[in-house]
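COURSE: Structural Biology Practicum
ASSIGNMENT: Worksheet 4, Part C
STUDENT ID: 0417
INSTRUCTIONS: Below are two proteins. For each, the amino acid sequence is given first, followed by its structure token string. Answer the questions at the end about the second protein only.

PROTEIN I
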Amino acid sequence: MKYWDIAKAAGLATAITVMGATAVTAQDEPGDGVSVKSARPSWDTGWFTTEIYNELLRELGYEVSDPVTLDNPAFYQSVAQGDVDYWVEGWFPLHNTYEDTFTNGAEVVGMVAEGGALQGYLVDKKSAEEYDITSLEDFKRDEVKEAFDSNGDGKADMVACPPGWGCETVIEHHLDAYDLRDHINSIKASYNASMADAISRYNSDEPIFFYTWTPNWTVGVLEPGVDVVWIEVDHPDLPEDQKELEDATEMAGVEGCVDDPCQMGWPANDIQPVANSEFLSENPAARTLLEEASIPIGDIFAQNATMNEGEDSEDDIKRHAQEWIENNRDAVDGWLEEARAAAN
């Protein structure tokens, strides 16, 4: 074979090799060249899950922006309009109230954590025992209201939810449904700041009363059954968009509840991704990843506790997400394989 024939053959082989490498890369990174606009909720206990999903999308080649922090109403409007592509902090049925806002342009897809998100009302255990508090109804008693009244307005102060949160809607409904407007003052300031104040009062041996959800750092600092207790509602009464779930508000085996089964007043929530429909249609790999991936509720709880202990910077949260991915690499690689297959 002449020199130029050898060179030509070598060039062809090189071209084939390059083409093959390009094909492999395209298969491994179906999101190459696609920008993703992610969002995260205003509650920081959901930032860890956000970072995990964002990092998984990056492993598929997507260019994922740092997430924008949004309250519920702003997110559901933005995702329907395509101003953001997705988040993984849809709480259902709590967020059913936003369905009319997002269903024409976005959809719920996949499951981050199924049925593991509890919600309800707690008081410090010492006060519960001293005043025999077992239900919201007990806050109609004068001696109870006086004990939990820190501003002198004659009402018990309860840490509630900031405006725009899904839990605010349910708490407001409960105040009317159980005739508690004249007895309970719901504090709607920054949740973390309000809980920090409540914990400070608890450490000073003062009564505290608050709403919370799990997973959340609050029940890591104030352990149900030890520091605080879940109290019940007299009967289930939910907003219209959750009425069919009233039978699901009584739960057995709730650690730290005043009774078993415990009438929480809230159904357990699924935590689910919500994404723009056009984005999902154009990116089958991203859709499949959202459908396949999940995170154990205990892992979310553990990370939230770590944040509360001081590892709460943006870099810390990103590191936590990356460590979780590496510690769960077998499962992660399976999800990524399914996502890549969906793109072919």
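PROTEIN II
(use this one for the questions)
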Amino acid sequence: MPPAAVIDPTLDGKDSALAARATGSSWRATLLRYYSLAKPRVLYGNVLTAAAGFLFASPKNVHWLLFLAVCLGTTFVIGSACVLNNVLDRDIDTLMARTQKRATVTGGVGARNAVIYSAVLGLSGMAILVAWTNALVVVVGLGGFLAYVVLYGMLSKRMSIHGTLVGSISGAAPILGGYLGATNSFDAGAVIAFLMLFFWQLPAFYSIAIYRKAEYARAGVPVISVVRSIANTKVQILLYTAAFVTTSLLPQPFGYTGWVYTASMAVLGVGWLVMAIRGLNASDDDSWARLMFRYALVMMCAISLLLAIGPRVP
């Protein structure tokens, strides 16, 4: 499953900084450059949601070997997508401050070697998923990879304001894959888990689109804040935040969690919703947008924790 596209724009800058520190020709520096290409912070965040999806779908007994196979295969597939994305985005990355130090931009890792590295990761990940999980996980993994690399990275990201929606589909694939890995069936829980991550990504990414607006405009990436306006972006953030909060409260009515989950998500969700409402009249758009994104990261951790423990507590 590919990475959540909306985590990528900011956390990826930290992974680029990691690549910048990996100078020299020693084996350690070389390993760090290749490691940075997999966008580790993005990678681990997405694997966390895959693990949460699996545990959410395993309220009683956890099949730990299957859990390990799902997480390991997902890690390799996501890493492969991240590496290939680095290769494809070299022209854009040279124009954006947060990505100018990527190893694929500086020449620390050549494009050919990066593609080989991506292929090894991807094939290894898919082999694990094929051998030890089920057909649904394999389909989600392959479909999510193609959606992120081709439909998002190669096409919609560069051509349409709706690229974020496409990226959000691929970004919700890890939690769906984790859920299906445990159940081997597509049910209401799978839909809820997928929609939660799908809706979560849009307020997060649109917040980044506000405070990174100048960089995206310079790189020619048609994000919503550049094409339509910051005011319109704020309205979309509010609408998708409301959609997320609503979806996040569905597990209990469908019988998947108890009141501990619902009360916790309600408090956190209302807090995010209030913040989104206040943003409509914010005087400092950049500061508000950065705060919204930081809260989004808190929400992602909360989603992962509460979905994992929700079926196990009252």
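ANSWER KEY EXCERPT:
Q1: The first helix runs from residue 8 to 21.
Q2: The chain has one domain: 8-312.
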